[in-house]
Amino acid sequence: MTRRVVITGIGVRAPGGSGAKEFWDLLTAGRTATRGITFFDASPFRSQVAGEVDFHAGAEGLTPREIRRMDRATQFAIACTREAVADSGLPFSGVPAHRIGVSLGSAVAAATSLENEYLVMSDRGRDWVVDPDYLSPHMFDYLSPGVMPAEIAWAAGAEGPVTMVSDGCTSGLDSVGYAVQLIREGSADVMIAGAADTPVSPIVLACFDAIKATTSRNDDPEHASRPFDATRNGFVLAEGAAMFVLEEYEAARARGADIYAEVTGYATRCNAYHMTGLKTDGREMAEAIRVALDESRADATTIDYINAHGSGTKQNDRHETAAFKRSLGQHAYDVPVSSIKSMIGHSLGAIGSIEIAASLLAIRHNVVPPTANLHHPDPECDLDYVPVTAREHRVDSVLTVGSGFGGFQSAMILRAPEGAKA
């Protein structure tokens, strides 16, 4: 018999707030946390706006040695893990260490530290041959993405499966999906899963500048991210992280855990088509949604809210709209949809996990967060995208989706546990 999997702990670090509560308060207020880049001089770049996290590692309880050793993204993941573990109330000391695993997603891993170290060793790019005397002793930690989940495993005492998932902007969905599969098959009883990315750096900004994927609306950073709006012109780069504690359902229920939701369905597909291009019919995303629904043993009409990828690029928003219509049929017109990227930007591999957090909190509070900055709907995006203001709405089941460069398309179904709501 396939084991059921539930989420019992949440930790979030996102633009505009520290912790799950501040994150949810920002979303439900419809506030935007995107701003002009402050981390470095962005004036040479086409896009100069981002979603930056006001993160203070020392205040998060990280020691000077941990701060020196860990990349910023790893620091985010550790802080979120601690919050999620505390939130879950799970006595980890009572779980055999080899039955606890870690699944972490990230698109660019320690790109921030790698870039910083190169600038030091090359004297800001002046020297073609870098000077090894300036090499950080932690350079390997920055080079190897697998160090990130290993740090989480050390912090939590997890000796079970430990994995890094890196497939672009669906990494944060796929890492949780993989964790679910490990618990279902019996390879682990508890998984710490989620994603972290800190890509607000010159090299990452330049990469997206080159393909004109990010917005050039630098004169109005707070309103630059406009998913599904006719005036949208690209996404806002951001950073962030979210981590979760996942448990086998019967064990969680037996210990009286406060369950946010059960993960009832998950699927991922690739369009095998183009690195950045999307077909207009949304077929691959629709197929991932269909399989996730089948795994949930539910039909389209059971979905109460869709947490969209909603990046704010012309092709993504149209592709996604087509995918919802293709997979959900008439119900696509009846279910509320929104994109939280309108408020916190697009944190690449981390955003899928951050959107899972938003979905869990929507279930908990029966509130659909809005799509901020949606004032002029694109006629081709003709669904109920919950513009500007949060909406009270019964939410028992959420479909959250992701779309990533390389053609990756992922979907997950989250459902409120039985008896959790009157």
Q: In terms of per-residue confidence, which ranges show pLDDT below 50 for 5 or more consecutive residues?
A: none
Give the amount of beta strand, in percent: 15-25%
Average residue pLDDT: 95
As for the CATH topology, it is Peroxisomal Thiolase, Chain A, domain 1
Major sheet attributes: 11 strands, mixed
| CATH architecture level-2 label | 3-Layer(aba) Sandwich
Number of helices: 13
Distance between the termini: 29 Å
Query: What share of the residues lie within helices?
Result: 25-40%
What shape does the CA trace take? globular
CATH class: Alpha Beta
The SSE order reads EEHEEHHEHHHEHEHEHEHEHEHHEEEE
Task: Describe the fold and architecture.
- Helices cover 32% and strands 18% of the residues.
- It has one domain: Peroxisomal Thiolase, Chain A, domain 1 (3-Layer(aba) Sandwich), CATH 3.40.47.
- Helix 7 (171-185) packs across helix 13 (351-365) and helix 10 crosses helix 11.
- The mean pLDDT is 95.
- The radius of gyration is 20 Å and the shape is globular.
- The protein is an alpha/beta fold.
